[in-house]
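Task: sequence design from structure.
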């Protein structure tokens, strides 16, 4: 089975953030890793899920 690859638009929709946020995160070295394919950015779903899990682990738990 092929690995899921997302476009910038798909990634922004998945994370429910504006595309500009993904660009800013990339400039700051934050956010899920992106892969340059020519002039386009692509995001592997597995990398995004790992990043989300790591971010969730950092977040303080509330009761």
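Answer:
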């Amino acid at each position: 089975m092929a690995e899921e690859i997302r476009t910038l638009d798909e990634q922004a929709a998945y994370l429910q953030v504006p595309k500009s946020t993904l660009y800013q995160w990339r400039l700051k070295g934050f956010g899920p890793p992106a892969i340059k394919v020519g002039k386009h950015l692509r995001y592997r779903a597995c990398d995004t899920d790992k990043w989300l899990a790591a971010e969730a682990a950092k977040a303080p738990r509330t009761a």
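The chain has a mean pLDDT of 93.
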